[in-house]
Amino acid sequence: MNTNNASFANTHSPAHAILRSLMLCAALAAAWPGMAQPLQPGPGQTLPAVDVYKSPDCGCCKTWAEHLQKNGFTVILHDVADVPATRKKLGMPNRFGACHTAKAGEYLVEGHVPAADIKKLLKKHPKAIGLAVPSMPPGSPGMEGERSVPYDTLLVKENGHVKIFAHH
User: Fold this and answer.
1) Quick one: which of 65, 27, 64, 72 has its CA closest to 140?
2) Largest CA distance in the chain
3) How many other C-beta atoms lie within 10 A of the C-beta of residue 156?
4) Distances (CA, A) of 44 to 36, 67, 106
5) CATH number of the domain at 50-167, please?
6) Dihedrals phi, psi of 162, to nearest 5 degrees
7) Where are the chain's structural domains?
8) How far is it, in rounded angstroms, from Cα 40 to Cα 12?
9) How far is CA 156 from the centre of its chain?
10) What is the chain's pLDDT, residue by residue, as a tens digit (168 residues)?
């Protein structure tokens, strides 16, 4: 075998193919670091704890917290004297106000947002303040009863604009 054929055979071996693939992955990871974010918690990863700031007398907030716990979240309840002041301090615009404000990872969650929507937010990881279900719509988690109404979960962007995140 001449030198050219030997060189060709060595560069097309399985070991070279693996090396080329690893080099390509390394180059892509260096070029696009923001694209290497996990989309959902993997084995060994857990959902973030959710800190819920609520009035001491609010029962529906506790029911919403139980909904989150049933869906895999650890919930820490904080009784506060002034929910609107806490909401403002955390950074959620008051116009999206409900009976409680929560913090899940880097996001704020206002009102009776379904756990599935919070998981979707954490998976998609958009640039946003967080999610809001303004008011207290009947049929939303923590507000279950005989009557339900359609409602939307809103994605509250950093500039204060909103986009419908989910219809319920």
Assistant:
1) 64
2) 86
3) 25
4) 18, 22, 20
5) 3.40.30.10
6) -125, 160
7) 3-35, 50-167
8) 37
9) 13
10) 444 444 444 445 554 444 444 343 444 344 333 333 333 444 444 799 999 999 998 888 899 999 999 999 999 999 999 999 999 999 999 999 999 999 999 999 999 999 999 999 999 999 999 999 999 999 999 999 889 999 999 999 998 899 999 999
B/e letters for 14-39, b = 16+ CB within 10 Å, e = fewer, are: eeeeeeeeeeeeeeeeeeeeeeeeee
The DSSP symbol for 99 reads S
Strand partners, 132: 110, 154
Contact 97, 50 (CB under 8 A): no
Residue 128 to residues 62, 114, 122: CA-CA distances in angstroms?
A: 26, 17, 11
**What single-letter amino acid sits at 60?**
C
For residue 82, the Cα-to-chain-centroid distance in whole angstroms is 26
